Amino acid sequence: MEENTAKRRKLDHADSGPTFEAASSSASSMGASGASAFILETEELLKEVKYDYNKTSASVEDTLRQFKDIIEATDSHEPLPIGEVTAKFEKSNRITIPYPDPKPAKDSPYKLSFEPPAQINVVGSWILKTNVKSQQDLAVDMIVDMPAPIFQEKDYLNMRYFYKRAYYLAYITSALRQALGNTTEFVFDHLHGNQLLPILVTRQKDVSDKNGSRSNSKPAIRVIPCIPENYFPVARLTAVSNAIRQGKSEEKNTEDSKVPTPFYNTTLKAESQYSSYLKLLYKAANSCAAFRDACVLGRIWLQQRGFGGKISDGGFGHFEWAVLMALLLQGGGRKGEAVLSPSLHSTQLFKATLQYIVTANLQKKVVMIGKDAPSQETLRQSMPVLHDSAHGINVLYKMTPWSVALLTEQAKWSLSAINDSPLDQFDPLFIIKADQPLQMFDMLLSVHIPSSKEGIESVDRRGFISDFSAKLYHTLKRALGERAQLVHIDMPDGAAWPISSSGTKSESKTLLVGVVVDPLKSSQGRDYGPPYEQKKESARFREFWGEKADLWQFPDGNIVESLDWTEFSYLGFSGICEGIIRYILKFRLKLRDSDLEFYWKEIPKIMSLAPSDKLAFDGARQAFEVFERDVRDLEDLPLHVKQIAPIGPDLRRTSLNVPEFNFRKPLLQPMEVVVSFEVSGKWPENLAAIQRAKIAFLLKIGSSLEEAKEEIKTHIGLESATRDDENLAFLDVVYENGASFRLRVHSDLEESLLDRQTKDKTVERHIRTEAADLLASYKRMYTNLPLHNQTISTFCTRYPALSPSIRLAKHWFNSHKLSCHFGEELIELFVLQAFLKPYPWQTPYSAMTGFMRTLLLLSRWDWRDEPLVVDSADSLSTSQRLEIGTRLQAWRKIDPNMNRTVLFVATSHDVSGIAYTLHGPTKVVATRMTSLARSACKAVKEKRVDLNIRSLFQPALRDYDVLLHLSPKILKSITRDDATRRSQFANLSEQNAGGKAALPLVEPPARTLLKRLNATYSSPLLFFHGAPDDNVIAGLWNPLIHKRTFTVHMPCSLRSSGEKGGGEGELFEVNRNAILAEIARIGGDVIERIEVKDG
User: What DSSP line would sit under 313-344, residue for residue?
Assistant: First the structure.
């Protein structure tokens, strides 16, 4: 380990590219146990995903041999004019020749002929044996080397080669269909989405599939015509050369010859390199034993991120990955030495390749691998460049600036996952599907593709959609500037078309644009450009922005170009970015507002998430600081105040409702606070006496505050306690400005007395159990909640999207009536974990992205066997994490049915795992949470951007047996119980004549009713309820309470079923009607009606 580190330091100063030591350094960052676990998991994965060639290899080889014989036996014909031969061929064979656009004119002077191919070979993954079972496009690539005599020296110009190639493909298609038409399906497609390269895709018909007995698992065969190696002059096909002359002349001195056509040229050069690259990959596989496995790992990694060889899939697929590794095994490092060693394990090769992708800076640099590399100036182009000097090919010629940026970011995120935690790095790399736009991007919009091609389509023949996407990308990237860390465009994918058709057009007429924002800069209301004195830069700035650009003078007198976006500031970063995008696309690309659709516009209809919420939470925090100062300033307290700690969600920015208050509208639900005093021996050593001493402290604090501040009113309140040794009272402190706080007193002695009583084996067992419950409640209130409050507040400041993400998650739990079983702190930990461990992505920067990641976390969490470890302080060691897992296993052995502990959630300050889940949820509720999260993630995966976000928050009320509909009018009247309502009696009218404000609520009335119902009917019914203002309480009958004979200790109200129990007497069943009638009596006017599910 030390030796490797020393080598890396020695070579870090070199500027010639990453070395093997630097690239593979991540392999040693996991530690021995983490590395070995990762290797075992990848080896198991490779066994499961590798394609079984034994089942189909023989039949595929027979088919390939049959194809070869047919193609080689096809009759040749003499050169004929292109117009004549096209019309005659299409009429006689009913096959439309797949000429690329623009199609040749009927009077073109070109001539087409056919001769049998020079040779036919099989290339690609089938030969290398690197296919996987999950491939959707499993195919065998058969290349047909077209003979040199049918071409001319200048056929590389003006699409002439591609016209001859298309005719050659159609001609062999006719021969194959004539011989195999009854048993084989034939369609045309574009190779990797390149519109210059039509290919023939054949698939054998499977007659047994009609009955559904088995599906056709045989791979398709792709027939790919190509050109002899080095046929066209390489010097005429460089990245700065032009091979498309728009005029009639093909001479060099035309104006069109000045425009480079790098994509066209590289496509033409790549046509002659199929066999040479097959030899390169074979050589790498023979020299490196782990090469094939590393290729499979790379394929899976790319596949899970939506990357593929098609241009619409990013232009970086398995072939590019394999070629990159093969080249790095030969060179690419300092002074041309190899970056990768052939002795590496497949996982090390995989990680080192990721490291190279990150460090090579493919977005900005021209990267060259191999000897005798040409000048960088002859390679520069708009596309990313990874130049293979031996073959003269830019390996990344199908990639776009946005796809290489996303590839680099994905590799960077994956390396972060590898280096972060050695215990859970496998799933983010190979299991989680990481190409879901709703879970990846902070902003999403669709852009309508214009019908007019004027001023957009280039001469490079990439296609109109690719050209428009490039223009759109560069415009958005420049306009958003530092606001956007990543801009990605998802282009529509073209489909195959019948051989008798003239071609296919993409069904989608829109582009999907995803943006990952910079949270620190995305909300800036004003952008600054170059100084006014820099005339050229200022002119370019104004030309790009138009009338939006203006001048801004700083206090020091400097004048700069600027842009004012403050009109959108009230909408937050999304509103500002939307305003920028709408303006610049209308100004630069002439797109109307109707051509743009921004997603997640329905969030305000779900719940209010406004930038002004931050001001409300800041106001609550400032009010708390005033309250803290007022309490600390009290001089007549018996003990000095040590700490005043907030424990309520309002003071950690996570309450569902924003804490807005004023002198006319005070807070009805006070913000909860705990006060601790200095250590003193004056506390009584009796739990009941301590509770009464706390009441005395609260009374003293209340009277002192009222004496010191006229604008403060205090009210003592009693807890709904059932024992005299638990907390009995609290103090509500109400300010004239509407702020209110609920204060409880913390005594250090109480914990030691409870701990002593819990361990005292001289007392009865039930007393120790009660003491343990009290100790758990004590630790939650006075230890865990203050620490939790501090942790969440810190991360809400660090991650601006955390607070709204938590609030959205709480709303989801409320909508599905689960929040009564989950503490608010537990839900906050779920969301925090999605931010701390965001892999396989970056930390979310928007509320919806954070919420989507939380749902994914819940859907994938196997809480039966796995603990959730939220290491917010990054202080837990590997041994501590293993101890937490061991502790969960011990709980499962003690309680296999999970009647007591279901979810096991450990944090940095509480490794017991049960502090946040001691009182729930039950196994039924946890299972429902998981199923709902999985359903939501399934909808996100299947519907993608077409998903209606509001559907995620729709409760499935039909799943419940009983629905208690509460009266909104009665609930509001109780909640808004003001002073006038309290003064209906004459003897109290004088006290309230001054319009005394309503006292703060102890708890919402619906929550009080729910507690009463749970206390009375928790055995026969499991209740579900959401937010305090939720007007429906749902219930499920307990299926475990089945018919039984009469006993003394019945679990609930039963009635005779009229059945006999096999000689043991009459059977009794749950008396549902009586229980519901009792519930109606308890609820009184609060319950409006009870709905019972039929059956």
Answer: GBS--HHHHHHHHHHHTT-BSGGG-BSS-TTS
CB 388 within 8 A of CB 370: yes
- % residues pLDDT > 70 (the chain): 91
DSSP 694-751: HHHHHHHHHHHHHHH-TTEEEEEEE---SSTTS--EEEEEEETTS-EEEEEEE-HHHH
Average pLDDT score over the chain: 87
**Residues counted in the chain:** 1095
- Sign, CA torsion 437/441/446/447: negative
**Structure tokens of 322?**
């394999």
Separation between Cα atoms, residue 220 and residue 204, nearest integer Å: 8
Cα dihedral sign for 882, 906, 34, 37? positive
Confidence of residue 506 (pLDDT cuts 50, 70, 90): low
The alpha carbon of 509 is separated from its chain's Cα centroid by a whole number of angstroms, namely 25
Q: Which residue, chain included where needed, has tokens 């490291």?
A: 355
Instruction: Give whole-number Cα distances, 449 to 456, 469, 824, in Å.
Output: 11, 9, 45
Strands (DSSP E) found in 859-1000: 868-870, 905-907, 962-966
Say which DSSP state 1044 is in: E
Coarse DSSP helix, strand, coil percentages of the chain, rounded to the nearest 5 percent: 45, 15, 40
Under DSSP, the state recorded for 192 is: G
Beta bridge partners of 963: 1034, 1091
For 3-61, give the DSSP string.
HHHHHHHHHTT--S---HHHHTGGGGSS-HHHHHHHHHHHHHHHHHHB--TTTTHHHHH
3-state secondary structure of 502: coil
In DSSP notation, 550-618 reads EEEE-TTS-EEEEEE-GGGGGGHHHHHHHHHHHHHHHHHS---GGGEEES-TTHHHHS---THHHHHHH
Residue percentage of the chain with pLDDT more than 90: 58
pLDDT the model gives residue 3: 39
Give the CA distances from residue 832 to residues 798, 828, 843, 940, 1003, in Å, rounded to whole numbers and listed in that order: 12, 6, 11, 21, 27
Q: What is the pTM of this model?
A: 0.90
906 dihedral zone (left: phi>0; alpha: psi -120 to 50; beta)? beta
In the chain, the N- to C-terminal Cα span, in Å, equals 68
Give CA–CA dist 489/314, Å, rounded. Answer: 10
Helix, strand or coil for residue 529? strand
Which helix (H) or strand (E) segment holds residue 923: the answer is helix 923-943
